[in-house]
Amino acid sequence: MVEHRYLGNSGLKVSEITYGNWVTHASQIDDSGAIATVHAALDAGITTFDTADTYANTAAEVVLGKALAGQRRASLEIFTKVYFPTGPQGPNDTGLSRKHIFESIDGSLQRLGTDYVDLYQAHRYDYETPLEETMQAFADVVRAGKALYIGVSEWTAEQLREGAALAKELRVPFISNQPQYSMLWRVIEDKVVPASAELGISQIVWSPMAQGVLSGKYLPGQPVPAGSRATDEKSGAHFIKGFLRDEVLTAVQRLEPIASDCGLTMPQLAIAWVLQNPNVAAALVGASRPEQIASNVAASGVKLDADVMAAIDTALGDVVERDPQNTYTVSPKARLA
């Protein structure tokens, strides 16, 4: 069963393996398949579910709402996000303005079939809206009982500090950041993680398997597998392209004996690795088939000793991306419309 961790400096516990439906629901799999995977997650002890209004242009929230219908609401932690364009993508259908936040939370709650979300997240930083406006709107959403806590995704260390200062002033619980993080992508370690630890903010990390590259199924010098994410432009193919270099894929293959010696599969090793970071509260994992859930859950509670962590670093060598400047390029400088 999945172990739980506190999220940030709060009393909220979340399952350290969290179910995310970014590229699966209303996209890769039909509704019946999505419902089956969610129920498998529940059976495995996953209580935390992450989505966003922009996933499949709001349809992913609808599917998750259907899948969780009938469950005891108090036993679940449901997260969603706001920022990216939704609906007809008009001039105010994006960003972190007060207008868009207020309209988006109501839409998300309706689609998810719940009166509140446990965590409401700014999906990116909005350079076109004053941060004071955004944080005041989030505070009002919390005070209206529509969200219990607030978080963000892919904010820089400086943005986290500024947001946390306003949150403290507004007396609103700001407890999480959701960045990309994996053995291959460690750009948050230099600045974001230390700032977060100081501020009482946890990481909920996405792509712990580097878009599937750390599963070992992508081989150097070979075509990408048919039907894989790398072939599907609707399912994050552009995110994986940077990892599909022969030097990266060759290094990843060197992880297989390490995983085997630990009694783990390569995906389990990848998930367990991110969970060794004490600032990580949860690893976001998706699934297109129920059996994938059982395999992923086996990474919960795994402790990797110092020798294993060192062996992983040696195997990957200099293909690991560590440059903290990458954290400054994720949020668009202008809203996407």
Automatic annotation (TrEMBL):
<dbReference type="Pfam" id="PF00248">
    <property type="entry name" value="Aldo_ket_red"/>
</dbReference>
<feature type="domain" description="NADP-dependent oxidoreductase">
    <location>
        <begin position="17"/>
        <end position="314"/>
    </location>
</feature>
<protein>
    <submittedName>
        <fullName>Aldo/keto reductase</fullName>
    </submittedName>
</protein>
<dbReference type="InterPro" id="IPR005399">
    <property type="entry name" value="K_chnl_volt-dep_bsu_KCNAB-rel"/>
</dbReference>
<dbReference type="GO" id="GO:0005829">
    <property type="term" value="C:cytosol"/>
</dbReference>
<keyword id="KW-0521">NADP</keyword>
<comment type="similarity">
    <text>Belongs to the shaker potassium channel beta subunit family.</text>
</comment>
<keyword id="KW-0560">Oxidoreductase</keyword>
<dbReference type="InterPro" id="IPR036812">
    <property type="entry name" value="NAD(P)_OxRdtase_dom_sf"/>
</dbReference>
<dbReference type="InterPro" id="IPR023210">
    <property type="entry name" value="NADP_OxRdtase_dom"/>
</dbReference>
<dbReference type="GO" id="GO:0016491">
    <property type="term" value="F:oxidoreductase activity"/>
</dbReference>
